């Protein structure tokens, strides 16, 4: 199921930039999205939601962090929430589903070009898809689907195809 249709599954993974009243973040679905808070400020003013007014000061706004529930949080801004007959005080955090809904897509995370790398290595070794498939115990169809980006591949399977099918080594680097 796509996170686009069900944003409840999508949370903030990392804050990338904090500008005057705009935050760009990487979401757990791999999207980079930007939230412009200026329109929200107007709504908050209109609704006279004074608990949110501290965010109008950029010195406070820029102290944003990610809460344990993976949404935007301002630990220095305390708000009161009434539940039944009790009042609970805690740091301001915003509904992640609303943040996602009101954000603008900047870009999607880049896909790994595993298929392209596999094809280039196979061709450089002078091997056909059938030869690689036979040596690695897979099918030509599966090799083709990987090379064309139509099928995902587990790292163990990629390693098996490269080692057995091409006689090469896989090297993974996280930079």
Oligomer: single chain
- Count the DSSP helices: 7
How is the main sheet built? Answer: 4 strands, antiparallel
Tally of distinct domains: 2
Strand order of the largest sheet: 1-2-3-7
CATH homologous superfamily caption of the largest domain: NE0471-like N-terminal domain
Terminus-to-terminus distance = 30 Å
Structural class comes to: alpha+beta
CATH topology of the largest domain: NE0471 N-terminal domain-like
What letter string, H or E per element, gives the SSE order?
EEEHHEEEHEHHHH
What overall geometry do the principal axes of the alpha carbons give?
elongated
The residue ranges in which pLDDT falls below 50 over 5 or more consecutive positions are 1-7
* Counted beta strands: 7
Instruction: Report the CATH C-level class of the largest domain.
Output: Alpha Beta
- Give the fraction of residues assigned to helices: 25-40%
Quote the beta fraction. 25-35%
């Amino acid at each position: 199921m796509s996170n686009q249709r069900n944003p409840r599954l999508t949370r903030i993974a990392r804050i990338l930039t904090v500008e005057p009243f705009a935050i760009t973040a990487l979401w757990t679905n791999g999207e980079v999205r930007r939230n412009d808070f200026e329109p929200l400020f107007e709504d908050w003013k209109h609704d006279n939601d004074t608990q949110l007014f501290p965010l109008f000061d950029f010195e406070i706004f820029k102290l944003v962090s990610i809460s344990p529930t993976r949404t935007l949080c301002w630990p220095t801004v305390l708000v009161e929430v009434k539940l039944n007959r009790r009042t609970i005080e805690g740091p301001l955090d915003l509904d992640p589903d609303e943040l996602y809904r009101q954000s603008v897509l900047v870009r999607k995370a880049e896909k790994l070009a595993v298929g392209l790398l596999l094809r280039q290595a196979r061709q450089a070794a002078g091997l056909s898809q059938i030869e690689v498939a036979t040596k690695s115990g897979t099918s030509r169809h599966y090799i083709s689907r990987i090379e064309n980006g139509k099928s995902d591949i587990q790292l163990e399977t990629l390693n098996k195809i490269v080692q057995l099918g091409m006689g090469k080594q896989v090297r993974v680097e996280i930079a």
